[in-house]
Each structure stands twice: as structure tokens, then as C-alpha cells.
Amino acid sequence: MNAIMQTHEKFTPEEKTLLAPYVTNTDQSVFVLKNLPEVIKGALFSRYSRSTLGLRQLLLKDFILNKDSAFEDIQGIPVGSAQEGSLAIQKAQDFYDRILDGYGDDSIGELGGAHLAIENISILATKVIQDARIGGSPLEKSTRYVTFNKKVNGEYLFYQDPQVLNSSHRQLYLDTNRFLFDTYSELIKPVTAYVQTQMPREEGISEGAYKRSVRAKVFDLIRGILPASTLTNMGVFGNGRFFEILLSKLQTSRSTELQTIAQTTYTELAKVVPSFIRRAEPTHRHLNSYQKFIQENDQLAKQFVAKYVTSRPDKTTELVQLIDYDAEAENKLLAALLYPHTEQPLRQIRDIVCNLSLKEKQQLIEQSIALRQHRRHKPGRALEMVFYTFDIQGDYGMFRDLHRHRTLTQERQVLSTHFGYHCPLEITEAGLAEIYHNAMEKAADAYETIANDLPYEAQYVVPLCYNIRWFVHINLRALMWLIELRSTPQGHENYRKVAQEMYRKIEQVHPLLAQYIKFVDLNEYSLGRLGAESRQEAKLAGQ
Length: 543
Prior knowledge:
This protein has about 550 residues and is α+β, with helices and mostly antiparallel strands.
């Protein structure tokens, strides 16, 4: 019997009737959109990350019941009727079934997809879902724009792991999570007052833009108190191949939560894209084989660690370490840059480039760099010939933001309280450090106690401000985008520091190639969101 993830939302019978043609259910936390054109689904998911509402409530409020949305005209069928849409889906399913049965080509699964909403899942679980890199586009509710101190039926929204609740750690787990949410809620008003005092509204800045910027700053400062158990919402668009692989990974996980998500997600996706996820069905031979493969790999790695990796961990606090880089990077980049415009093999072009003078190489690279006029001018794939490997130690909240970049290889260690935590300077200056540190100490004590028996589940009580280690292997083209995007003024202070430090490490070993990253912002800002909010207001006013 499959587990069911019940929703906290309540819909009237009339609302359920209106929603029924467009969602696979109205009573569970996992559901799939259906019978909606791409324009509505895209707009709906874009609203999702900045709203406290669930996706079904947004669909009702912003589209179905919103006369200005022209929902009926876009949809092309009367509200409350899904006959035409259902027929279209059935025809598509029959077609893909014939193709899959006839050819069995995995790439066919990339020609169709679904918009999946996964609500009321832990922040810890979202990272596993976002690990899947190819064929899917996840979007998670932001800790910057939405408060997380809401209660439902008198309880904060955090994941209550059944293994922990059925153990001797039940009360410690519940008390620790509740205390962290209490602390988060307690700090909202005093931190807001402090931010407003330190950064008063300047002349010419609208009250709305200022309030939104202050709110974002406050949530940025206190988000580290939230535990990894915090429940959030995710929107995921993916093709069939993506969902098949994702379901396989979730179902082979040791986590009860991830296994439950896999079960409910499979049930809902099977209602709209059954052809694409057949091999992720719990009893399918491919899934069973994959599960054995994963288990054997984990066991092999653990045995190797136990035998050879016995030294105590390095307690370095360095934010970013550059582990690997290519001493021949300039030559490889130039050869790749010239390659499409010649008829010579790559080795011959590299030999030619190696024989150029340093001045000639520098001139060609600098001229190439000069062509970039703004951040969205992306150089060609020649930059992908240059690779770097970084080892990063930063807080889990920062990791969540940087983890979303797709064109790279990254792997993380288990979330723990072993590497300390980040306390924002503003918290100390506001006289609130004792409250903050007290919460972190209680969380660390709870983690150590629970981890003795349940090491994976103990991660749920770790606040987002605690540090985690992960490595990033990335090419220069992707790194250029990451650094320039994550160093913008509106970015979170912590991940801006990582982006800036990455740039400085590259500048030390490849000063010429670092010039490709010409739109990095190395400045510091107080209300980083203020400029973006003001520009958005001006844009709306000009419409």
C-alpha cells in the first residue's frame, strides 16, 4: 500500500470541481498539472517560489477565478470541462506507447514531460531532487521572500520523520525543531527594527521597494536558524527520461521521506505520462537491478573508507580552496577557439598555438574578451576546455543557492554540526547574538544525540547556518556565469563571498583567463535587493 502525503490545504466542493480538470488530485501534497497550455504552466510556476500559497490555490486565484487572466480564451475549453484535453493526452500516450514498444529508445522519453508540484517536503529532501541535472528544471520556494513561521493546527511546518518519532529521540527531535522555529519567529521584529535603523529609506526610494528590500534582508539574516526539516514547496518541470531517473534514485534512497515522495510521485506521474516512467515502477526489473548496484557501490566505498581513510578530518575554515587547475589552459582554450574556423586536427592547432609568443596569445584572448558587452554575452564552447576543481566549506543555506547551477559536477558530504556555523554580523550588532548562539548549541546537542542511533535522520535538526563541505568541478564557461550571477548586488551576502573568492583564486593562477569574468562584482552592499526592487517598480510604472 502506497503512502499518502496529505495536503494542509482545504478546498470547497465548488473549488474542487473547478480544479479537477487541471490537477491530478486536490487532497494530496504531490500532484501533477494537466490539460493546461505551456503559457499558463510557465506563468504559474514562476509565481510559485514567491508565494505562501500552494500551486492549486495560485491556479484558482490567479487564473481560473481571475477575469483579467483570460483563462478560458487561453485554455480554449470551458472551465470545468476537460474532455478535449483528456482526448489529446490519451492520443499522445497511445502514440508514445507504440514508439517505445517498437523502438525502445530512451531519448523518446525526452519528447514529453510534466509539471510536477511536490509540496510539504523538507529542505533536506529538495537537495536530493535537485541533484538530478539533465532534463529537469526545479524551482523551490524562497527563504528570502516568504516567511516560514506559519503554523498549521498549532504546529510549525517541519518534517516529522517516522523513524525518529518511533525512537527514544522523539521528544528531543520535536522540541529542537519547535525551539528553532520559535527563535526564528522571535527574531523577525527586532532584526527588522535594526535593519531599518541602520539603513533608513533614502530620498527617491519608494516605500514599497524599501519595505521589500528590508524584508528580504531580514529573512536573509535569520534564515540560518531554520532547520533542514523545514517544509517547503517545489515545482519541477521535467521530461519523461528525467522523471524515470529521478524516481529510480528516490526509491533506492535510505530515507523514508524520499521513498514516500517517490511512491506518491510515481502514482501521480503515471496519471499523465505513464509511458515514460514504466521502468521506475517499484517491481520493475530495471529498478531492482539499479537498487542492487547502488547498495553494492555504497558498501564498497564504506569499506574502503574504513580501511584507508582513518585520519581525523581537517578542521580548516578556508571558504574556498582551489584543488585542481590546468597549467596548459590558455593553449587549450585558444586551440578550441580557432578549431571551428580551420581544417586542421586539434593536435596540430595546439602545436601552432604553443609556438605563438606570449604577447600574441595575450592579444588574441584580450580581443576575444573585449567583445563581451554585458553579462548575458556568453563566449563559445572553447571556454569549456578549461576546468577547475574547488573544495568549499560554507553554510548549508549558501550551498542550497549555489547547488542550483547545473553545468558542473558537485558532490557534498553529510550535513552535520561538526564544522561550526555562520552568525551574521548584523545579529551580533543588534544585540541578539546570545539568542542565536543558544539556538545553535541546542541544535548541535540534539544532532549529536540523535546521530548516535540515526545518523541520516539527525540531519533534519541541523540549522541552515551550519557549515557543510562540497566540491565543485566546473569549466570556465560555466564558472564565468556562476561568478557573475552570484556576485550581483541582490545576491545573498554569503554566496556572494564564495563567488568572489572563486574569482580571486582563478585570478591568481590564470590572470589572463580571469579577465573573461569581466562582470564580477567585488563590492559589498547593505540592502542588496534595493536596486533590483526599484528597477522593477520603474519597469512596471512604464508599462
